[in-house]
Amino acid sequence: MWLRCCHIPEAGQLFLVMEKGDCDLHKILQNYRKDIPLYTLMQVWYQMVQCVHYIHEHGVIHLDLKPANFLMVKGRLKLIDFGIASNIAFDSTSIMKFSQAGTFNYISPEALIDTSSENSPAGSQPRIKMSKKSDIWSLGCILYLLLYKRTPFAHIKNIYTKVNVITNPNTAIEYPALPSYYPPMMLEMLKRCLQYDPKTRASTADLLQFPFDMVIPIGAGMAAAATTVTTTK
């Protein structure tokens, strides 16, 4: 996504011109009453993985991936809303957050777990360990929505019960049988994203190794729609 700015000091004015999106993925999915056609589903899923792969390669963890934060722009998905995103050091695999953040239907188990010890001072901030794999869980929740029209824990309405279920390592996620026109690799990718232990989850690089080209054309034209910022004076 490009952004241009123009500053006119003598007039005390600052103009921002941003790329206009067509519609976010959340609204797009609301238009589907039946299963999403395989070609469309694969296009959407591939572009989402590409977007997240791009930011991960540049040391950024989004921490709030959900359909509303993927914007369709001229047929291409772009990732937006980096309000709670964090940079991760090149020599590190995780970051420490001091408050819970994210959207409950897409939030990873570790994003809800305070790793502070019992010896921590009374009233001290929680310590929540997050990594790129936290985004992978969120991607898995979105893929679950694409395949089953709901997120894994959407049926649990009580927020405290939902937190307990998500953070329970013994929780078994249901994977109903998929229609025969969805290839088995869709379920395999889904299960690799929704692993309770972050270390066992796939990376975006792992996901991109799946044979998407069996269904959609892969090439320069399908490169990730990465967010860019352009400034002019």
UniProtKB/TrEMBL annotation:
Q: Where is the Protein kinase domain?
A: 1-213
Cite the InterPro entries for this sequence.
Kinase-like_dom_sf (IPR011009), Prot_kinase_dom (IPR000719), Ser/Thr_kinase_AS (IPR008271)
What keywords appear on the UniProt entry? ATP-binding, Kinase, Nucleotide-binding, Serine/threonine-protein kinase, Transferase
Which molecular function terms from Gene Ontology are attached? ATP binding; protein serine/threonine kinase activity
Gene3D superfamilies per the UniProt record, alphabetical:
Transferase(Phosphotransferase) domain 1
Q: Does the keyword Transferase apply?
A: yes
* Name of the protein in question: Protein kinase domain-containing protein
Source organism of this protein record: Culex pipiens pipiens
